[in-house]
Amino acid sequence: MPHSSKTIQKKQQVYLFGTCLIDNFYPQAGLDAIALLELAGFEVIFPQAQTCCGQPPYNSGFKAPALSIAKQTIDLFSDEGIPLVVPSASCASMIKYHYPTLFEANTNDKQLALNLSQRTFELIDFLHDKLPYSQQPKCPHLKVTLHESCSALREMNVASTWHKVLEQLDNIELFFPEDRHECCGFGGTFSVKSEPISAVMTHDKSQNLLATGAEKILSGDCGCLMNIGEHIVFEKSAFKKQANPCLHLASFLVARFGLQHEH
Amino acid sequence: MSTNFSQRIEQALADPQLRANFRGAMKFLRIKRQLAFSDEQEWRALRKQGAAIRQDVIQRLPELLIQLEQQCLQNGIQVHWAQDGDQANEVILEIAQNKQAKRVIKGKSMASEEIELNDFLAKHDIECIESDMGEYIVQLDHEKPSHIIMPAIHKNTAQITALFEKKLGIKTPEGDVDALIGVGRRILREKFEQADIGISGVNFAIADTGTLCLVENEGNGRLSTTAPPVHIALMGLEKVIPNIQVLPTLQRLLTRSATGQHITTYLNLISGPRKKDERDGPKEVHLVLLDNGRANIRQDEKLQNTLACIRCGACMNHCPVYTRIGGHAYGSTYPGPIGQVVTPQLKGLAEEGELLDACSLNGACGEACPVEIDLPELIRTLRHRRQESTSNAWSKEALVWLVWAKIHQHPKLYQQTTRLAAALRGLTPYIPSLWRKSRNMPKPAKMSLHQQVKDRSNIRKKAGK
């Protein structure tokens, strides 16, 4: 709903936090997130001063850099009337659930963190009831599988809305992999620090996802998609795969709603 | 252990049999647990109750322990306090020497593993035989338990058959589990009859009645605590609970989480030695209360929930790391997520801190914990503590994060770095990284999201706001 009282109907504004991974490696997923938000009638604000949410050092044991990044991010998205939308359950969870724990109780910073927490949403969860499902153009039949990221399942609790969105799409068949709730082995710096374990986990996950026979592997977290996708490409002869089958849900939805890519 | 953690991980991962044994067994346990908690609402309610009970215990631990001691003494149970493993071992040795005991039979007890009681007694010429089937198997092979509930889960039937033949000289038909259990049972029956002392662990100790609860399936716990003339129970301080009213909740959570059973075959409630008019039971019962670092854990508000643990093992059954490397790789008494949290606290972050790295913070353990221990948060907190306490502020990793922070705290610098990375994307295949051992290195995009958004006129620029 518009929050402005001006006579001209003003679009509801939303902030987009693009995430550093999307910014650097998968900008198309970010553009597609913007396209979907616009399709749902929002005006998207993307502050150029955004960087990373601070999760990598935070999870690695380095609290100080995480704290300063958190302050900076809270300051950047300070308008209390504007929701913050994040095309990653993992980064959304950092902002929503971990930022408030970084600050001492009864401080101004804590209040600001809690305020931002309340208006932080994972992209697909934010959009699931705002998309024009009745206006889908005719799309070819497609078998897809969904990787429910750990953050979507156990932190943001949005994995079920990811299903709901996919269930409302025409002409797709959704398959779930064996051990569907198990981690893909990414875990940020875990994938480097504990590479041998991570590699085994990633291999099992990739195998289970491909065994569904799906043509596309969908998820709302680019960290997992990068991990799984780059492993499948690495092992392409073993997996008999030519191309990387991983795709961000935002990009998949943009295609299914027939939106033109912006460039 | 002579090897370090990463070497043990490599060894475990290189053993396909071990991995298959764990993957299979853990999946079986997860499915059984899932079925036992099929009513989601009931699970949530029960879990909340369980968490509240354990929180209350942590808050009132000193008072509950004093009450437990008083009630035990009234019941005729002799109570001993042990500050650390050495003291606990000495207390037990003294009791044994007073009785001129040479043979001890022991029910399953992780606390006894923690203080390495078997080795200690052996050094003093006292034989201590494990009576839990799984524990008996690992003892026979001079190993340690690889799981806190299923000590021999790393071995399959064929491996145990070979072990029995090698160590006991008894051949059993291939794949015949019942025959193997029959062998163990026959040998252990004799040991129960001969034992001078029975030692057991404690699952819960009820403070207001002075009752020791022992949860088990094989009946070995009951025999170990009733057949020998002396029973010594060893428990970590945190196992106390206020009253019997809270027992059903914890019991249901424990057995369903551990093995998917609604109730175990045996639930022993021990309230004292044999009374005058009774014809069986031990003549003496001792309770050894083991601190060994637990009181310190309680002092730390952020970490004290570590003590809520009821040792069900669900966290390891659900851990994608544990299910691949198995319990031995951790090199500690308690493996898996709870071990990663307990061990560095008991033995020090400097010695055992590297255990904390073997975790992707996926949250499966915390979700499965029946008493709501936020294990990922505890692991994360310990990683922060490790960093804060380290004298190694100039480690390679610390420098990496220092540079990282400099870049990410300055949006202009961040954008310049991004552009530089994009310009040099052709060099991606030459970047050395462990990541490359199992994955391709993704190339930075030609144009970042920042740049592409800048080029779009319909997105409002609200930089700095």
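Chain B has three domains: 1-36+313-390, 67-295, 398-455.
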